[in-house]
Each structure stands twice: as structure tokens, then as C-alpha cells.
Amino acid sequence: MTDQELNEKASQIKSRLPEGKLFYSIGEVAELMGETDSTIRYWEKSFSQIRPRRDANGNRRFTPKDIGDLRIVHYLLRECGMTVDGARQRLSEAIKNNKHGTPTSTPDKDSVEQFSTRAEVINRLRQIRNFLTEIHDNL
Fold it and tell me: Which tens digits make up the pLDDT trace of 64-84?
């Protein structure tokens, strides 16, 4: 995935955020990310960088920064096919390399090429598996 594609995805998510809101519920975030509420909760537990605030009733309230962090987690896990441990390590590295302590900027070109190559290999292997499954089913 190129830098331009990453920026387009980030823009799509940002454009889907309601104007003027400072906080988002877990349901809103899950819908924006195309994930389930339980997946968002799991990612929150698995990644120390994702810590939404809680309101008086204990409900999670995600900021745009939290959503940016989740966007990167989603990219690393779903698009690049990384494990949770690998994504956790990559997210930590991104924060260490960023002065502001947030990984919401796009990854550097080398990282994108590495992830794109891996994602392409995974996609191609899935295509081959599907093709072989079709052949097997027709036998």
C-alpha cells in the first residue's frame, strides 16, 4: 500500500467522523472501522497505546487520536496480516520515532513497502488457496 493509498484511507475515516464531536462511543468507532464492538475492546486491552476515556457511567469515549491509533492497528492486523504481537511492536516503534508520541502519521515509505509486499503475498496465497479449493471441489 502506497503513501497515497494510506492517506486516502485516513481521509475516508476522517470524513466519516461527525463534525464537531470530541468523543465517540464504541459503537460509532466499531462502525467506522468496520469491526465489532468486541474487537475494539480486544484491541484496547491488547494495545496499551489505546486508552479511551470513560464517562460517569463507565462507557468508553474515544477521541479522534484514539481512532487514529485504531486505524493503524486495523491496518497492521487486517491489511498487512501481522500478528497482535508484531503490530504491538510496530506501533511502539512508531510512537518512539514520532516526537509527538502518537503513531497517527503515515508510516515511512520503507515500512509501507514492507507491509504492502507482505499484504500482496498474503492476498496472492489466498487466491491460490481458493483456486485449489475450487479444483478440489470439482474432482
Answer: 888 888 888 888 888 888 899
CA atoms within 13 A on the CB side of 118: 15
Number of H helices, E strands in the chain: 6, 2
Express each pLDDT in 105-125 by its tens digit: 444 445 444 545 666 677 778
Distance CA 73, CA 45 (A): 12
Residue 54 DSSP label: E
Tell me the pTM: 0.58
CA dihedral 45, 7, 98, 80 (to 10 degrees): 50
Output DSSP code: residue 56: T
